[in-house]
């Protein structure tokens, strides 16, 4: 009789240990609504969109501008050790093709002149110009948000989506640096942003934004 009681008790333990506890997932964002706020920053100044909701950027030399975001806070369930499970993916419709590149470097004479007695500041005797041609065959087109697609890119591979675009993860202030040069004056640049609130298991939400930036 004692053996039967022990057997029943053992079976009950196995039965209850196999029952999975149902996890209740919260809405990703506090308050139930996930919002994004993206702005364009250039030379340290935050720009203001015009009446058509276009951002006008006045070119001021070879540089870059930034797309800076401010995201809704996540519920504690989607914050691991103080790190929020957020992800912002940036892309654009603007590509740059490199053909010929010229740049100059100063040249110095062996045992030449210096501008002080410490011999730490040599005086240049002129510039030498380097020219690189046919770069299109060496480098694939560059997307201005900062990525290139290789010539034999595998679009069917599982990792393809991680290579296309640039990504800012695990923060409430995602930022993307965007290339800017004089060839872009007069053009309109479209920046596409997908923001994912909770990029792990459980409930998630995504918000898509598009910024139209006019280079003047």
Summarize the entry for a quick read:
By secondary structure, this protein is mainly beta. The protein has two helices and 16 strands.
Task: Please describe the topology of this protein.
Blueprint: H1 2-17, E1 36-42, E2 45-46, E3 54-57, E4 63-71, E5 79-80, E6 83-84, E7 86-92, E8 95-96, E9 101-107, E10 126-132, E11 142-143, E12 147-148, H2 160-163, E13 166-169, E14 175-180, E15 188-197, E16 205-215
Parallel strand pairs: 3-16
Antiparallel strand pairs: 1-2, 1-4, 4-14, 5-6, 7-13, 7-15, 8-11, 9-10, 11-12, 15-16
Strand order of the biggest β-sheet:
3-16-15-7-13
Radius of gyration (CA) equals 28 Å
Q: Which segments are poorly predicted (pLDDT under 50) over 5 or more consecutive residues?
A: none
Number of helices: 2
Beta-strand proportion: 35-45%
Helix content: under 10%
Estimate nothing, just give the exact number of structural domains: 2
Mean pLDDT over the full residue set = 84
Order of helices and strands: HEEEEEEEEEEEEHEEEE
Tell me the number of strands: 16
Just name the CATH architecture of the largest domain: Sandwich
CATH class of the largest domain: Mainly Beta
How is this structure best described in words?
This protein is mainly beta and 216 residues long. It has two domains: 23-95 and 142-215, Sandwich (Immunoglobulin-like); 100-133, no CATH class. The protein is 9% helix and 39% strand. The protein is built from two helices and 16 strands. It has helices at residues 2-17, 160-163; strands spanning 36-42, 45-46, 54-57, 63-71, 79-80, 83-84, 86-92, 95-96, 101-107, 126-132, 142-143, 147-148, 166-169, 175-180, 188-197, 205-215. It has a five-stranded mixed beta sheet with strand order 3-16-15-7-13, with no helix packed on it. The chain has a four-stranded antiparallel beta sheet with strand order 2-1-4-14, with no helix packed on it. Strands 8-11-12 form a three-stranded antiparallel beta sheet, with no helix packed on it. Strand 11 (142-143) and strand 12 form a beta hairpin. The mean pLDDT is 84.
